[in-house]
Amino acid sequence: MIIPHPLLGPRDAAEFVYLGDAALIDRPDWQAEDALTAFHDYGYLRDNPAGPHKELWYHEQGDRSWLVVTRDTTTHEITAVELARDVARSRGRSA
Amino acid sequence: MPDFTLTSAPPLAGHDKTFGDLRLTSPADLALVSLALPLGGEDAAQKAIKSAYGAALPAPGKSVCTKDGARLVRLGPDAGMVIFTHATPDAERVVADRLNGAAYTTDQTDVWTGLELTGPPARAALERICPLDLHDSAFAVDDAARTAMEHLGVLIIRTGQDSFLLLSASSSAGSFLHAVETSIENTI
């Protein structure tokens, strides 16, 4: 599988490490009233879609960037790749 | 107590082997210093690099040669590397002084080992171990990339039409040399 890195171009998937669902970017607020439930969901509950899936990949054997990759789990077709920090910044997080 | 003096020696120092039209050498006195652009201080760091070296830090995946023979490599949005020839073990201080502390600098000289592959069949010799497309259209002269060859992390830089500089971890220098030489022998 080839992942088209937004800065570095097409790279072999062997250079990357897979983390999982991109929802892991949205860590719950630990001080919220419902923090216990929120962290249970955050830690244990995942969707398992047959189709497009947003997931986190780490370019370990490359520029060490985190990516949010939109991949179809049934065909491995990749439709979008963004830098995870751009995704976090677009939600008003990170500097 | 007797006085000992320790002399540092790069793991592949002096390696020089010829395979037909190909030559595999270990560059002498290679010094490497990594650059990290501070969060919020990216522009100041870029400006300091440009005034110190007379060349701007290029786009990620590119490198540029400066007038004094150093090579500036951009590895990612906030990361770069200065590669130059320097015999004494104070490379980090030299770069930090030139940049006046505008970027974070870390000495990488002893951590990496270098191999230079030159000759017309250089690209063919790498095609079995390098997962990147090294054709002119995809990897032009002065392009640089971090990748993995034989499971070893490698920074590959195209230093000329038929020459590549390969940098890998010095702790696995012997395995890296073996991987490259095996690939050369398998392709010639």
TrEMBL record, chain A:
GO biological process terms, semicolon-separated: tetrahydrofolate metabolic process
GO molecular function (one): sarcosine oxidase activity
InterPro entries: SoxD, SoxD_sf
Pfam families: SoxD
Name assigned to this protein: Sarcosine oxidase, delta subunit family
Phylogenetic lineage: Bacteria, Pseudomonadati, Pseudomonadota, Alphaproteobacteria, Rhodobacterales
UniProtKB/TrEMBL annotation, chain B:
Superkingdom as given in the UniProt entry: Bacteria
Protein name: Sarcosine oxidase, gamma subunit family
SUPFAM superfamilies: Folate-binding domain
InterPro entries, sorted: TrmE/GcvT-like (IPR027266)
